[in-house]
Write a structure and sequence with these properties.
The structure holds two protein chains of two kinds. By secondary structure, chain A is of the alpha+beta class. In chain A, 51% of the residues lie in helices and 10% in strands. Chain B is of the alpha/beta class. Classes of the chains: A alpha+beta, B alpha/beta. Chains A and B meet through α9 and α10 of A and α1 and α4 of B.
């Protein structure tokens, strides 16, 4: 039901709130009770004088009846309904009725779902941190080893009352050393875990800050799309609350962004996308731009223009420099991804495009990979390479090749490409 | 004749404690602290029992165990593995990989001593 068709419901809500009987309101407004009844059940459209009279009797602004105070609430409900779990049955066509009739409950629902989303993000972030947190893993291992050592030495001293003094001294010294180590490890662990909840900045790596910044802005920066851009001035105007290291990454990203926007201007990009969809080949042909530029531009498209486009960029060592996830295809934050990804094959053939369908868990994606030479090799300097993998939603699982995310958290067994044992493996 | 134990463990204070209790029990205890050349040490020493930590600098204890089991000379040596992980499936995996016994840290001195004795009488 459209918002304008909810006028009757609003009239009814205001009437009941003010304790006015339907007949009284009808009489004072100059209409019949049966007509008001039809209006209140949204079975008659009203406007003009009738609306003004009703608003006057109810003592509210006519706009409050015609537009309602719940427009933003309906928008919020529609947004959060889209984030409900798959399979959840939601009466999308009755959201406005729900917001009008139960505004408090609707607001509460919006708030609940927003909190759930925040918790989801926090859990995801902490899971990511636990899996990739070398300090936590190392410290826990140290604690267990130190406790083992203290237990053994203490038992020796307790069970051997007649122990030679040289051995006594040695194990007492060992216990002393180990207890200090244990205290230091425990202190480090507590500090580490205590600082984790303010997730915001203290524990974020510069890469995490960059990705957070890009996500917050939807990967799209209209102010860096303009021609004749005063880059330094534009950068000064961005809102930044992170570390200097993170800021450097953001500036580097935006510098590349503005160069790409010069090569493929926003208007051209939109024109091609509207005509052909997010096809890298079509955009490259239409603009004469190299594929890496095309990939990066496609990954900056605002979501209202086309379906989300994912991207991974890595350096010649395979470390991820930029990531944008889509469709459940997971990309590690700042370590190398799965060695089976075609992006790594493309590093051995700079300039040669590779197209491949991949399946990772339940996610099926269509990928396009290519490596660009950032700096040509000379007699005294090696070439610098950056590989790109564009990710589009895929559908054909039959022809897809199975890949992982990154070895440390990959459950695939007997993989010849594995470079380290998975924390998910039973023998870890 | 004195039996030999090769203890492959990088935590020096654990090494001292284990060496002490085994020596007092009559064992000749040799030690090695690095994962990288641990297999060479096993071949060189040819001990009666190997005590092998899972997490070693340079190389995992499981990889070293695999080399031991595939070797004609030392392939049958009893191996006691030490690890911080003690789930049932961890122990089963260790045994499938060829470990004769598996102890979870923090273990007691008595547990190590009994385990080594059991391995020789097996």
């Amino acid at each position: 039901m459209s918002e304008s068709n909810m006028i009757g419901t609003r009239i009814r809500e205001h009437r009941i709130m003010k304790g006015i009987k339907q007949g009284d309101l009808a009489q004072k407004s100059g209409i019949s009770a049966s007509y008001l009844n039809l209006i209140e059940h949204n079975k008659r459209k009203i406007g003009g004088r009738v609306l003004l009279n009703l608003a006057n009797v109810l003592g509210v602004e006519p706009s409050l009846l015609s537009e309602g105070a719940e427009a933003s609430l309906i928008a919020a409900l529609a947004k959060v309904s889209g984030a409900l779990p798959l399979g959840a049955s939601v009466e999308m066509d009755r959201l406005d009725e729900f917001a009008v009739r139960f505004p408090g409950l609707a607001q509460y629902l919006v708030e609940l779902i927003r909190q759930r989303d925040e918790l989801d993000c926090a859990v995801k972030m902490f899971s990511e941190r636990l899996v990739h947190d070398p300090l936590l893993i190392k410290t826990l291992h140290e604690v267990i080893s130190t406790v083992t050592s203290i237990r053994s030495a203490a038992s020796i001293l307790a069970e051997n009352r007649e122990l030679e003094s040289v051995w006594q001294s040695r194990f007492q010294r060992n216990i002393d050393e180990d207890s200090r180590r244990l205290a230091e490890s425990a202190e480090m662990l507590v500090k580490h875990l205590q600082t984790a909840p303010d997730a915001g900045s203290a524990l974020m790596t510069p890469q995490e800050e960059l990705y957070g910044f890009l996500e917050d802005n939807g990967y799209h920066f209209p102010e860096f799309e303009v021609l004749n851009l005063d880059f330094d001035h534009a950068v000064k105007n961005i809102s930044w609350h992170g570390s200097d290291a993170g800021h450097s990454l953001v500036v580097r990203y935006l510098r590349q962004y503005s160069r790409d926007a010069m090569a493929i201007p926003d208007a051209t990009l939109r024109q091609v996308i509207t005509r052909s969809g997010p096809s890298p080949e079509m955009l490259a042909t239409a603009t004469g731009s190299p594929l890496p530029t095309v990939f990066r531009r496609l990954a900056t498209l605002p979501k209202e223009l086309c379906e989300p486009v994912g991207l991974v960029v890595c350096d010649g060592a395979g470390a991820v420099l930029m990531r944008k996830e889509i469709g459940g295809f997971k990309i590690p934050i700042d370590v190398a991804g799965c060695p089976l990804w075609p992006i790594y094959q493309s590093l051995s053939q700079p300039g040669v495009p590779i197209r491949e369908t991949l399946v990772q868990g339940q996610a099926v994606v269509e990928t396009f990979s290519v490596t660009e030479t950032v700096r040509q090799a000379g007699f005294s300097v090696p070439a610098l390479l950056n590989a790109h993998m564009l990710i589009l939603p895929g559908s054909e699982k039959k022809q897809a090749r199975q890949v992982g995310r990154t070895c440390k958290i990959c459950p695939v067994e007997n993989c010849e490409a594995r470079r380290e044992k998975s924390m998910l493996a039973s023998d870890f | 004749m004195t039996k030999t134990v090769l203890l492959i463990e990088d935590e020096q204070n654990i090494v001292e404690a284990v060496r002490f209790i085994l020596s007092r029990d009559g064992w000749d205890v040799r030690t090695h602290a690095n994962g990288l050349d641990a297999f060479d040490a096993v071949r060189r020493r040819n001990p009666d029992v190997v005590i092998l930590d899972v997490m070693l600098p340079g190389r995992s204890g499981f990889d070293i165990l695999q080399d031991i089991r595939e070797d004609e000379t030392v392939g049958n040596v009893p191996v006691l593995m030490l690890s911080a992980r003690g789930r049932k499936e961890d122990i089963e995996t260790a045994k499938r990989s060829g470990a004769n016994l598996y102890l979870t840290k923090p273990f007691s001195n008595e547990e190590v001593l009994n385990a080594v004795r059991d391995l020789v009488t097996e």
